[in-house]
């Protein structure tokens, strides 16, 4: 006696993807977590997040892709103090699907806070000077250092010596 088993294959559908949470928001970037919970029964050819300043963003606006079914993605190059719309998306041979839309507003960046330290090791032709960047103002400090002039209130338009980046104390030697 032969037993015959019948079965019917399911037709592929679009994937199931979600934007789980917005983890971090700064002035110029945000970090989000997405999860692909079902591939729709077909190979997922593309997935990630899309965002923009208008509702219902698509990959044609801005896109960050991943191959991971659970991923933390860093959206960068955002404008400070701006509202963004973001949603996860996935695409297979059946079509593209979007997760629920979420919004976030980037932080306002302010000027960094820096103090000038007292000059030391003063000679006829050199001096050691420095400072301390105590706050980045919500944005990355891309340059720090000393500016100087023979007149009062020097700016970076006068002479300057770059002494790294980021927050923290720094020193430099001026000669000549």
Characteristics:
elongated, five-stranded antiparallel β-sheet, 176 residues, mainly beta, three-stranded antiparallel β-sheet
How are the elements arranged and paired?
Elements: E1 16-25, E2 30-38, E3 46-52, E4 63-65, E5 70-75, E6 83-91, E7 96-98, E8 102-105, E9 113-116, E10 126-135, E11 145-148, E12 159-162, E13 168-175
Antiparallel strand pairs: 1-2, 2-5, 3-4, 3-6, 6-7, 6-8, 9-10, 10-13, 11-12
General description of the model:
This protein has 176 residues and is an all-beta fold. Helix content is 0%, strand content 46%. The protein contains no helices and 13 strands. The protein has strands at 16-25, 30-38, 46-52, 63-65, 70-75, 83-91, 96-98, 102-105, 113-116, 126-135, 145-148, 159-162, 168-175. The strands form four sheets. Strands 3, 4, 6, 7 and 8 form a five-stranded antiparallel beta sheet that branches. A three-stranded antiparallel beta sheet has the order 1-2-5, with no helix packed on it. The radius of gyration is 27 Å and the shape is elongated. It starts with 15 loop residues before the first strand and ends with a strand. 18% of the residues are buried. The model has no long low-confidence stretch (mean pLDDT 92).
